[in-house]
Amino acid sequence: MTSDSPVTYERTGNIARITLRRPPVNALSLEIIRAVVAALRRAADDADARVVVLGSAIAKRFSAGLDLDILLGKPGAEIREFLQALYIDLYDAQYGLGKPSIAAVGGAARGGGMTMAVSCDVVLAAESATFGYPEIDVGVIPAIHYAHLPRIVGRHRAFELLFTGRVFSAAEARELGVVNRVVGDAELEAEVTKLAAQFAGKSAAVLRMGRAAFMRQIDLDYRRSIASAVDDFCNVATSDEAQEGLRAFVEKRPPKW
């Protein structure tokens, strides 16, 4: 990964940083997802990396979610390839990481950007960060979050967020338990580094074994749930209604449902 890559990997001391840098909004392509997965696997193999930070180099943007080129007019097989990377490969890379991961959300996180953020063990957000699941507004569904969000915020609050598509603040995300902590915009980097240093100061062997035990305990049937989410998303995304919603978004007009 070079400095002009859409995803970079850098390690300073014991902290490995994976950074999204695809202007203007870090829209997620298959290339980017695969690069993040490769960077996580690199971090897993990096004996000097004790903690991993996933962040963005784009001001006021974490990630706007999926690049619509992936979905618009594409056959189910191509959509499935992308969802396999975003849902399954990303999950597996995080599951086997062997060290803590921190999402540093300094701006807007939407859809697939939410998937990226919540794949991490801890989520820190700046005060101005915003969150949302806008898929319903373009005729698709945030299928993986049907498995994730109700476990965190409860069935009824999850349903409202997922089926209105409304944007919510970092403060509300903290109240709901979607993020761990909200800090001032100017303090985000320092707070992430401080937390990373706390993790890095622990025994690497104990962290590795403890995290593996933790992941086994919380996994339950989650892996199976996200596998079925790939099917659910693909079934909806290839429908006529979804294709109309996506075209309407690109053409900046109301969809004709």
From TrEMBL:
Keyword hit for Iron: no
Molecular function terms from GO: lyase activity
Cross-referenced InterPro entries: ClpP/crotonase-like_dom_sf (IPR029045), Enoyl-CoA_hydra/iso (IPR001753), Enoyl-CoA_hydra_C (IPR014748)
Domain of life: Bacteria
Protein name (record): Enoyl-CoA hydratase/carnithine racemase
Sorted UniProt keywords: Lyase
Species in which this protein is naturally found: Bradyrhizobium daqingense
Coiled coil residues, start to end: none
Lineage: Bacteria, Pseudomonadati, Pseudomonadota, Alphaproteobacteria, Hyphomicrobiales
UniProt similarity note: Belongs to the enoyl-CoA hydratase/isomerase family.
CDD domains named in the record: crotonase-like (cd06558)
Keyword Lyase: yes
GO biological process, alphabetically ordered: fatty acid beta-oxidation
